[in-house]
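re the bet — no i am not wrong, look at it urself. input seq straight from the record:
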Amino acid sequence: MTEQPLLDIRHLSIDFPNRHGVVHAVADVSWSVNPGETLAILGESGSGKSVSASAVMDLVDAPPALITSGEILYRGRDLLKTPRDERRKINGKNISMIFQDPLAALNPVYPVGWQIAETLRVHGIDKVTAHARVIDLLGRVGIADPERRAKQYPH
């Protein structure tokens, strides 16, 4: 008996329509990850690595992006047909992503601590507990004076 893939991407295509036509960012991509495996996606800049991985996490803005074909199966369930609130319960707990450029992920409009705590709050952790966890995490990675630094902006 063959084990079902943990994550199975089948014939995924993602387009970005614009005023000049359509950019086919991801065209008929398929890959899978079995339990216990690690997958590294390599390719040239602009080849669709981040876009396809972001689609798995439901982080591709639609519009402007259009997922024109394919399936994203997590444990056999098509995430593209799964309601957004249910996907949020899967993301972070069961599926996560390390972004290519984490420095670009920090929004200069919000304090660093608020942005870190946001991921915790989205998954149901109350504001006070999330703040305490942020301070702990900043301290664990060697950030001096984590209480003060959490209140600062990325810039």
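see?? The helical segments are 49-56, 84-90, 112-122, 127-140, 146-150. told u. also The chain has five helices and four strands. so pay up
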